[in-house]
Amino acid sequence: MISFARVTKRREGRDVLSAVSARFGRGEITAVVGPSGGGKTTLLRCVVGLDAFDAGEIQACGQSLGPGPAGAQKAALALVRRRVGLVFQAFHLFGHRTALGNVIEAPVHVKRASVALASERGRALLDKVGLGHRASAYPHELSGGEQQRVAIARALAMEPDVLLLDEPTSALDPERTAGLFEILGALREEGKTLVLVTHEMAFAARIADKVVVLHGGEVVEEGAPADVLRAPKDPRTRAFLAV
User: Fold this and answer.
1) Helices 144-156 and 115-128: crossing angle, nearest 10°?
2) Global confidence as pTM
3) Which domains does the chain have, with CATH numbers?
């Protein structure tokens, strides 16, 4: 569903991503791990055009994205954004809208769905993430974990084929992390492609089909969680995992 071919992103004279090549397959959960500042969030942002990149190519849901500003690839990015959902680490919920209002915003204004139809689906999605009872609450009335789950429901409201999640467990307690595991597992069973950036190695080991290690903007290792997280080959991975 998504592939990177030697993608390079430079910022302030340094490579944030350096000739990154990686593939993320349909119905597969990939965990992207590595030290802070290694380019993990930038990787996600490049897929949906929030960050331009300087060299290489990204294939996303049948669309080809190249270097340069997003405006030059407006049509391709519009198609990508309809099929790829991004859940930010900081949530970015609209503070003046309820949980349900946040979830229905894109279907109503982008897909032109009726408010009634979008609300019906939005309530079902909030139920799916365990927040049906909080549909009328505003973001400031929600805990961090609740805001995270509203953000996931909002991304799912566009019925994406691919879901990108930046640190999805950062605001969750162990009970809610277990609930997230069930939600993501169900999405994989539906055939969705999931790419998640995480610092939680135990969560990555439990949920992921594949682990990609980004270090200093480079992919230094990738493979099955049991291989990468328990018996890494690259010395940079071993140093990061302290094994």
Assistant:
1) 130
2) 0.90
3) 2-241 (3.40.50.300)
